[in-house]
Amino acid sequence: MFRADEQPAEPPAPRWSGSAAVPPPKPRKRAWGESAEIPPVPAPAPPPEQPEHLTPVDPWAGADTGGWDLPPPPPPSPPPTLLYPAAPSTRPYSGPPAPPVHSPAPPAPPRPTPPRVAYPPVSPPPVAYPVSPPPVSRAPAPSRPAPPLPPPPAPPRQRRATAPPAGPPPGPQAPKGYAPPPARKRRRWPWIMLLMLACCCGCPAYYGVPMASQYPANASLPAEVADLRLRDDDTSKAAAKQLEAEVRKAHLLADDTFAGVYSTPAGKRVTVFGGTGFRFTPESDAEDEITRLTGQYSLGEAQVVDTGVRGRHQRCAVGRADGQDVVVCTSVDHGSIATAVFTRLSLDDSATLLGTLREQLVTTDQK
Description:
Elements: H1 189-214, E1 217-219, E2 224-225, E3 228-230, H2 234-250, E4 256-263, E5 269-276, H3 282-297, E6 303-305, E7 313-321, E8 324-332, E9 336-343, H4 347-361, E10 362-364
Antiparallel strand pairs: 1-10, 2-3, 3-4, 4-5, 5-9, 6-7, 7-8, 8-9
């Protein structure tokens, strides 16, 4: 506060600091609805006391802590266990199926009874009853025989216990509410095709290969076969021509015929004859050839000789010719027939020698 005649001293001019002076802030404008009175500024709160200045307090001061080291009390003993009786053994029920059990319906609530109303008694009017006539005596009706009793009903038939339906097969099942996927059918057409191919190609190949390898065939008489020599005298030539004519007469469909007489230095004689041409059943043709020569050479029972070649069949039999024992062997395949008469040889040696002669006499185009 200054006196009226005293003026405040002017503040000293600020020192030059190289920067412009900062003007004082303008007074804040009062917001709309704000009171014009300036609220008192509250006094600043004292700073909180620091914990290092407080006196420590023992929370367990005066408490009895001597019983903490004692062991805990034992747990209570469990109640005694009750022994339940064993369940009786159940046997399979073989009688009729039991009827389904229905739960009883709940009882209906009682209906309220209406209050009874007392009505005055009503007297009935007088009624005149008719007088009945006196009873008339009648003869008793003849007694009728009692009808026969019906036969007792037959006891109900008991159904046989049927096995429960088989469960679903093991494996993944469709979820509930969804139909299972349809079973995939196995395709059988490959097996049928293979069977048809085997029948169509296998059978012709099995029977066609021997025919193709054995027909057509050619026949020629070599001069020497092993130790055999072809005889060129007039008697042997005449016998060969006669045999060739007999072969042509017996086998009319033959393409070509041949016949010859062979001998060895030891005196063994081999007469061979036959023909070439297609033969569909060589096995039956071999048996027919032995049957044709049976009367001429007095042959006995024919024996089957295994040739080891599919489609070639050989038969041999023992007989007599010109007072001495002979062995007659015939070998037939799909392309030719060769028959030989052996002297002074066994049946096995004769069969082997006929195979050797045939390899030299008959040739095919495949060779």
